[in-house]
Design brief:
By secondary structure, the protein is mainly β. About 0% of the residues lie in helices and about 50% in strands.
Length: about 70
C-alpha cells in the first residue's frame, strides 16, 4: 500500500509535486509541463540508497544514492 506525502520542492523556481513511498522505493512526481518530461517521475529504489543521514534540508531527510546521475532539463 502506498503512502502519499505532500511536497513543495523547488527546482529552478518551479514549485509543486508529490512524494509516494511504497514497498519498493520513493517516487517524486509532478505534473508541471514546464518541467522536462524526464524529471516528472523520479524514482529512488530503496536498494539504490547508499546512506540516510540525520541531516535535514528544510523539512526533508537527506538520502544519498549509490550511483549519481546528473539530471539535465
Amino acid at each position: 500500500m502506498k503512502q502519499y506525502y505532500a511536497a513543495s520542492l523547488c527546482r529552478e523556481g518551479i514549485l509543486g509535486g508529490g512524494i509516494a513511498a511504497d514497498d519498493d522505493g520513493i517516487t517524486y512526481k509532478t505534473g508541471k509541463v514546464t518541467v522536462s518530461s524526464r524529471l516528472r517521475n523520479l524514482e529512488m529504489k530503496y536498494r539504490n540508497i547508499q546512506d540516510f543521514s540525520h541531516k535535514w534540508v528544510l523539512c526533508f531527510p537527506v538520502f544519498t544514492k549509490k550511483t549519481v546521475q546528473k539530471a539535465r532539463a
